[in-house]
Amino acid sequence: MAIFSVYVVNKAGGLIYHLDSYAPRAEAEKTFSYPLDLLLKLHDERVLVAFGQRDGIRVGHAVLAINGKDVNGKYTADGKEVLEYLGNPANYPVSVRFGRPRLTSNEKLMLASMFHSLFAIGSQLSPEQGSSGIEMLETDTFKLHCFQTLTGIKFVVLADPRQAGIDSLLRKIYEIYSDFALKNPFYSLEMPIR
Amino acid sequence: MTVHNLYLFDRNGVCLHYSEWHRKKQAGISKEEEFKLMYGMLFSIRSFVSKMSPLDMKDGFLAFQTSRYKLHYYETPTGIKVVMNTDLGVGPIRDVLHHIYSALYVELVVKNPLCPLGQTVQSELFRSRLDSYIRSLPFFSARAG
């Protein structure tokens, strides 16, 4: 999938729409015996790898499933705490799936507001006159494109770094937004789009 | 095609070096505050990128561009950050930033027993070598383009 996600941010920096298309997230499932050679820690209601790396499992990966059953935050599917469960040698050998954690809605809201501020700082620190905010942010795994309209709405698209034609995509999304959201009499401006 | 300015930060946010070549607009705040704002922005962008990325990252945040300038970023495993603002025509210059770190900063500052680390670099040799290196780059033109 070349387009990873689309976000629409309103004038105040709040997220009003988000769309994630399926992206192949790095995941690895392995069977472990006691003791676990990865150090786990609880962070933000998730169990993450704090130290240790093997076979595709890296620092920052979260525990996604134990013995095939998806975990629910820091609790297993049966309601036991993951860290306690994995600390008990009686539960081994156990098969655990690790992977990059998916973003929760709250996290997406926070990241959208963070980007809104970074966009403004990018324009303030400009060495040139009349600079816009951040229009394209490049990393080695994705490229983030942003289009700000005259009314302050930002359309943000995360795509593969080699994907072309995102500028026309952003304008097309703007067209669709104005056709379906703005012309809808029941839609209030700056509110989340349903 | 030109280079606007260059910042060098250490892992604690101290600005080790700043020089500018063609800068038309000042930020409107003092230099101290500008360094702090720049460092804070980069720190936030790094954390933003690591959360947003759909796959595990190797190099992390590389660059961003606006309608007028492009900011290139290179960070070493020790937390030294090299930040260069150029205009839009410049492509990936990670190797240039790496050279600034390894052949200029490490050679002239880190290996110099009289240069205290963790504060602004006073070495005149470093400043002049950096300046001549930047002026020798193929995308640097003396006339602000």
From TrEMBL, chain A:
Keyword Transferase: no
GO biological process: endoplasmic reticulum to Golgi vesicle-mediated transport
GO CC, alphabetical: endoplasmic reticulum; Golgi apparatus; TRAPP complex
Record has Cell membrane as a keyword: no
Compartment annotation: Endoplasmic reticulum; Golgi apparatus, cis-Golgi network; Golgi apparatus
InterPro entries named in the record: Longin-like_dom_sf, TRAPPC
UniProt KW keywords: Endoplasmic reticulum, ER-Golgi transport, Golgi apparatus, Transport
UniProt superkingdom: Eukaryota
Entry-linked Gene3D superfamilies: 3.30.450.70
Subunit-level organization: Component of the multisubunit TRAPP (transport protein particle) complex, which includes at least TRAPPC2, TRAPPC2L, TRAPPC3, TRAPPC3L, TRAPPC4, TRAPPC5, TRAPPC8, TRAPPC9, TRAPPC10, TRAPPC11 and TRAPPC12. Interacts with SDC2. Part of the multisubunit transport protein particle (TRAPP) complex.
Family indicated by similarity: Belongs to the TRAPP small subunits family. TRAPPC4 subfamily.
Role played: Core component of the TRAPP complexes which has a function of guanine nucleotide exchange factor activity for Rab1 GTPase. Plays a role in vesicular transport from endoplasmic reticulum to Golgi and autophagy. May play a role in dendrite postsynaptic membrane trafficking.
Name by which UniProt lists this protein: Trafficking protein particle complex subunit
UniProtKB/TrEMBL annotation, chain B:
One BP annotation, GO: endoplasmic reticulum to Golgi vesicle-mediated transport
Pfam families: Sybindin (PF04099)
Gene3D superfamilies per record: 3.30.450.70
Presence of the UniProt keyword Repeat in the record: no
Entry keywords, A to Z: Endoplasmic reticulum, ER-Golgi transport, Golgi apparatus, Transport
Entry keyword annotation includes Secreted: no
Top-level taxonomic group: Eukaryota
SMART domains to which the protein is assigned, alphabetical: Sybindin
InterPro entries listed in its UniProt record: Longin-like_dom_sf (IPR011012), TRAPPC (IPR007233)
Compartments (UniProt record): Endoplasmic reticulum; Golgi apparatus, cis-Golgi network
Signal sequence residues: none
Cellular component terms per the entry's GO annotation: endoplasmic reticulum; Golgi apparatus; TRAPP complex
CDD domains found in the cross-reference section: TRAPPC1_MUM2 (cd14855)
Role this protein plays: May play a role in vesicular transport from endoplasmic reticulum to Golgi.
Subunit record text: Part of the multisubunit transport protein particle (TRAPP) complex. The heterodimer TRAPPC6B-TRAPPC3 interacts with TRAPPC1 likely providing a core for TRAPP complex formation.
Record-stated family: Belongs to the TRAPP small subunits family. BET5 subfamily.
Name used for this protein in its record: Trafficking protein particle complex subunit
Source organism of the structure: Myotis myotis (Greater mouse-eared bat)
Lineage, highest ranks first: Eukaryota, Metazoa, Chordata, Craniata, Vertebrata
